[in-house]
Amino acid sequence: xxxxxxxxxxxxxxxxxxxxxxxxxxxxxxxxxxxxxxxxxxxxxxxxxxxxxxxxxxxxxxxxxxxxxxxxxxxxxxxxxxxxxxxxxxxxxxxxxxxxxxxxxxxxxxxxxxxxxxxxxxxxxxxxxxxxxxxxxxxxxxxxxxxxxxxxxxxxxxxxxxxxxxxxxxxxxxxxxxxxxxxxxxxxxxxxxxxxxxxxxxxxxxxxxxxxxxxxxxxxxxxxxxxxxxxxxxxxxxxxxxxxxxxxxxxxxxxxxxxxxxxxxxxxxxxxxxxxxxxxxxxxxxxxxxxxxxxxxxxxxxxxxxxxxxxxxxxxxxxxxxxxxxxxxxxxxxxxxxxxxx
Length: 342
What we know:
Helix content is 29%, strand content 13%. The chain is built from 10 helices and 14 strands. Strand 2 and strand 3 (67-70) form a beta hairpin.
C-alpha cells in the first residue's frame, strides 16, 4: 500500500477488535495529556510506529506491528480534492458514502458553498425562495481562453493563460453583482472554470498524483473569497441552484431575459434603474436572466457609491500561489483589471 502522506482523520472506520480499542485508548490518553498535540498528528505518529506494508495487500502493519491499517477508497470516501476538484466519483461512476470538505480556502462559508454546489447541504425552505427572485447569466468563454489556461511549467510567468481565464470570468461576475445590487435580487453565481489547480504548496498545475482533465469546473473558493462574499448585503446562491429539485417550479416557468448589452454599451446604475424599472411591477418574474453580460455595467454615478462598490469588490480577491520554483510567489487576482485599477 502506497500511503506516504499524513492520514486525514476526518473520516475513519474502526473494526471492533481488542487491538483497535487499545489503540483508541492510547490515542485519547496521548492527546488528553498534551492539549497542544493536534489529534491528527498524534494519530499518525502512533499509527506509523513500526510501519511496514503487507505484500499484495491494501493494508499495512502499524503501531509497532499491533494494528492493520488501510486507506478508505477515495472515490467512495471523498476528500475536498478527490470529490470537489477531481470528481473521482463521476469518473469511477460510483455513489460515495460520504465526503469531507477539506482542501478548501475560505473557512465555513467555503465548505458550505462547496456542499451546496453539489446539492449536499440541507437548507430550510426559505433558502429556495429568496425575496425578490434571482438574477443569473450564462458564462461566455472562448475556446482559446480555455485552451491557453492549462499551459504551465512551474514558473509564475506561465500563469498568464490561467489568470486571463479567471479575470475574464471575474469581470462578468462584477457586472452581474452590480445588476443584482441595483435590482435588489439574489445573484446566482456562475460555474467557474480554472486552468490550474489551487493548492498550498508547489505543483505543476495539479495536485501531485491526481488524475483529472484541465481546464476544469473549479470550486468557487478557488477564485472568490467566500468568507468576504458571505458578509455582504447582496445575497447569492450556488451555480447549481436553479437545477435543485427543492426549488419551486416558478423559478423555471416564470422568468425573463434582459438584453443588457445590445450594442456593446455600458450602463450606469441610473440607466439600469430607468431601463428596467418595469421589473418592480412584475413580482412573478422569479428568474431574471442577463444576456451578453460582458462589459454590461459601467459604474455608479455617485462617486462615493462607486468607491464603496470598488472597495467591496476588492475584498472578494483571492490568490493563486506556488512555491515550486526558487522564485516562488503568488498571483493576486484583480476584479478591476480592465478598469486600470489594482
